[in-house]
Design brief:
single chain, mainly alpha, 0% strand, globular
């Protein structure tokens, strides 16, 4: 998954540089830019939709570790974009 070519390199770069105080339209634009790649990952790597089959510990322990990692790596605006992009990706797959 990490080695997959970027579908939208500009959106990925914008995400990496996203200011913690970014406005909502900017976050939405970036989310819309990265959502197609997230949707493709959900197709290419089905375990992403049901990660419990790949957990090394309990879902609570792994979920907590995952959340702590996200919060330590990304700022609030980036976390918001990831949530928006994830929702958009799921909606793309429903249609």
């Amino acid at each position: 998954m990490v080695e997959s070519p970027l579908a939208n390199p500009q959106a990925d770069a914008d995400f990496d540089r996203l200011d913690p105080e970014a406005d909502e339209p900017t976050g939405q634009r970036i989310a819309e830019g990265i959502a197609p790649q997230l949707a493709q990952h959900l197709v290419d790597f089905p375990w992403l939709r049901e990660p419990s089959t790949r957990l090394s510990t309990s879902p609570d322990v792994d979920g907590h570790a995952f959340a702590e990692t996200l919060v330590s790596v990304y700022n609030a605006a980036q976390l918001d974009v990831l949530a928006r992009a994830s929702e958009l990706a799921r909606k793309r797959l429903e249609t």
